Amino acid sequence: MTLPTQADGGIYIDGAKVNAKPGNVICIKAGKYPYINLQNFNGTAAAPIIFRNCGGQVIVEGKNYGISLSRNKHYKFEGNGASGVKYGFLIDGLPKGQTMSNGLGISNQSSDFTISNVEIKHIGGAGMMCKTNPTCDPMTWGGNFTMKNVDIHDLYIHDVTGEGFYVGITSRTMSITCDGVAKTVPTQTIENLKMYNNITENTGWDGLQVSSVPVNAEIYNNTIKNFGLENHSSQQAGLLFGGMTSGKFYNNKIYNGSGSGIQVLGVGYIQGYNNLIVNTGQDPVAKQDGFYIDDRPVPGLPVLYVSISNNTVVNSGRGGIRLENSKGSIVSNNNFYNNLVVKTGTGNYITVRNNVPNTMKGNKFVDNVAGAGFVNSAANDFHLAAGSVAIDAGVAVSLFNITIDLDGILRLLGLAPDAGAYEYNGGVTAPVANKAPISNAGSDVAITIPTTSATLNGSASRDEDGSINSYSWTKVSGPSAGTITAATSANTTVTGLAQGVYEFELKVTDDKGATATDRVKVTVSAGTSAPGKPVVNAGSDLSVSTTSASL
Questions:
Q1: What mean pLDDT, rounded, does the chain reach?
Q2: Cα separation, 15 vs 464, whole angstroms
Q3: CB 142 within 8 A of CB 298
Q4: Residue 244: its pLDDT value, please?
Q5: Which of 124, 148, 166 represents a domain boundary (last residue)?
Q6: Residues 364, 422: contact at Cβ < 8 Å?
Q7: pLDDT at 372 over 70
Q8: Is residue 79 part of a domain?
Q9: 94 domain residue, yes or no
């Protein structure tokens, strides 16, 4: 399916009106558009609808907004549709005077989606906004709908006035007026959020802000540079793990900002490890920390407690790591293990206030950058050099399941784990934990007899740290009829199918021998006879006697 344009050249499509079906791959042709607005496209978990750029890069140069996605469920918006183009969708507010309020907006009962390979720049507000503000429609209120299973990766957001990413509402309640009556209603939350491999650079406010994710927020492998450029108090963190949020953040690189590198204001157990935080908290008026952690208790949700381990924090404006407990709700033990804190400003290396229970082990504190023993700090290379004071300075942290470092190198190469985000490899190639490949057997297929063949597409399978060496298609269930014509290819055809439901499995093996599987269903339905020429039936032959008086 290819989407048509409006008279003004934009795309504004209601999926319910174009009869979009689960499993559809929808092409957005390369070119320039003033806006893209897609709503009411609903796939299924087994067969999501996929939006993809086709034939090159799609450029959106709108005045008020760039791309709006609302009331869509079970879908993927992917900018990987053109070979050699990293970001298949580009949202650029500069041609219209940087007036866009946000570049990419996701709202209004959206759920179960993936956003990937999008570049957003020159926005007057936030680069990406993902939330639903409550209206007089009760379905926009918290408790009536929850956004779930959100996957945001490989976005590049830069040169924006507001936040790079604004995901989730920061307030637990909001006031609205309906039919002249003012009321306060709860806001919606998000469950199961993953954000990874994203880059933000030159943001006026926070680099990456996440709030109201009380279940499974996972923020990792992101790079955040030059944040809080507007120097706006309370809107200047690199990574904000905000109110009503629980989960973990790890393997993030955060450089150069006026606010804290990582600010934690969440609930429940929060784990942060293998993060690199450099030159943060540099607000000239009120110096801030590398890590700033404080409680924001929410009735009905568990109170905050943290494990902060194996982070490298360099040149913070105030302190390295600070746990405040301003509301006095933190009563469980908090762990600070194997952190390397180098050259703080006016504060301490680690500060824990207001009688918070805590355990500190294996942390290493250095008062100047040269004394830490980095490979080349001037070039932002904070790997450990031979002789670094952080080598073997840590303690085992298997309790927290930290087995690899920021590079994926296995911990415990020496006598003990090293302090900080990087494990020293002795100047040789160190063993790296292999990531398993990702098998993708494609969308489910439905055919109707007289068609008896189907194409299985596994080309979306990938290996993030290597390559896929082999493919293997097998039939798991279904009628006995049917032949897989190319069982060891990424794509294959299955011929000679009979009526029924088949399930096929794709097994992929990467260059280090790790495997992964995925399955796809093929449904073969009985056909109906097409209208043809009329058939004449005069009945059976008759035999009569010649003496009969009549027939």
A1: 92
A2: 33
A3: no
A4: 97
A5: 124
A6: no
A7: yes
A8: yes
A9: yes
Reported in sequence order, the residue ranges of 61-196 that DSSP labels E, i.e. its strands, are 65-70, 73-78, 89-92, 102-107, 111-123, 126-130, 147-160, 165-167, 173-178, 181-186, 190-196
Of 432 and 351, the structure prediction assigns the larger pLDDT to 351
Q: Provide the domain count of the chain.
A: 2
Indicate the residue among 107, 124, 141 that finishes a domain: 124
* Residue 440 lies inside a defined structural domain of this protein: no
Q: Say which CATH number the domain at 458 has.
A: 2.60.40.10
Range of the domain at 94: 1-124
Dihedral sign, CA of 33, 37, 43, 48?
A: positive
Flag whether pLDDT at 536 surpasses 80: no
How many angstroms separate the CA atoms of 395 and 392, rounded? 8
The pLDDT value recorded for residue 528 is 66
For the stretch 487-517, pLDDT in tens is 999 999 999 999 999 999 999 999 888 899 9
Is 368 contained in some domain?
Answer: no
Query: Residues 437-468: pLDDT tens digits?
Result: 899 898 889 999 999 999 999 988 988 877 89
DSSP string computed for 226-241: EE-TT--TTS--SEEE
Structure tokens at 35: 């806006």
Strand partners for 217: 193, 247
